[in-house]
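Q: I'm writing a short methods note and want an example of a predicted protein-small molecule complex. Could you take the sequence and the SMILES for guanosine-5'-diphosphate and return the bound structure as tokens? Please keep the output block clean; save any remarks for afterwards.
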Amino acid sequence: MFRALREKLLGASKQAEEELDPKLNLDYETFRPEERESGAVIRESHLENVLWEMELALLQSDVAMEALEDMKAIIKKRLVGLRVENRSEIVPTIEKALKASLVELLSKNVFNPDILLEDRETPLVVVFVGVNGTGKTTSIARITHWLKENGKSVVLAAADTFRAGAIEQLDLHATKLGCKIIKHQSGGDPAAVAFDAVEHAKAKHRDIVLIDTAGRMQTNSNLMDEMKKIRRVASPDLVIFVGDSLAGNDAVEQAKKFHEAVDIDAVVLTKLDVDAKGGAALSISSAIDKPIAFVGIGQEYEDIMPFDAAWIVERIFS
Ligand SMILES: Nc1nc2c(ncn2[C@@H]2O[C@H](COP(=O)(O)OP(=O)(O)O)[C@@H](O)[C@H]2O)c(=O)[nH]1
Ligand SMILES: [Mg+2]
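A: Understood, no commentary inside the block.
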């Protein structure tokens, strides 16, 4: 299913697919330039020139400065003083090493989506946090769709009791997707909704509880207190931060704030179908040192896929 999605997103025809395939399965993770006795030596000045150009591309893709510094350090250590076959190999080698180091940074923390599908004694509880409009509710709906396709029973918790229409929005998804929703009235205590949903799932032996929460501003301390209370009351197995890839550096700041308040375990990065190159993936994951679990690539139920570091890196430079 995910492969089909990827093709859809890339708009790959049969032929394009063949061309893309080797690209998508780049051996970045194992890329090490060959050691040689003779040939052209890569010097720091070569690196500076090539990296400067690529840095621009990265900054334009919303890769944060800090992440860039980490990456440059990796590349320098790996390449300076190394010999390549001849001078013309220097630039491509540096470029490939740069991509490899990006993939490496993005693969430092990995989230295996299959852990959501494992059989367990008690329901797996997942809370989704993030500011308004980043895509929490639609991500929950998309993940529910995927879980249901994989035979899992899902309980949704409408713990965004703050925004007008939020409960109805989730309710609509629950009806379409055919799963149970636990909801209270608008303005109610979100933690109580989360608690009831977990209790319901335990009593009915459901597999997984997905808790939707309110957004507002990450600077709003009430919001952070509310998130902490939900965390305390629902004891989630996972807290997932939902970030909008179009939000650039704001998304990074939001991730840090939520991480401080509630300890994020993984990230969903949405709206990668809209223009964003995906540098936010690198910036967010290096800012909070947590993996990207899924990426949102549209507004349909199928428009979500597990994170793939090589795919994002190709996208950043495309
Ligand atoms: N194009 C696109 N739109 C998305 C994506 N994820 C969410 N959206 C849209 O973003 C808007 C806000 O999403 P919603 O789930 O309500 O955000 P929430 O406030 O965090 O719950 C909606 O119009 C969604 O359809 C995505 O991956 N791609
Ligand atoms: Mg919502």
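A: Remarks, as requested: The first strand starts at residue 40 and ends at 41. The first helix runs from residue 2 to 10.
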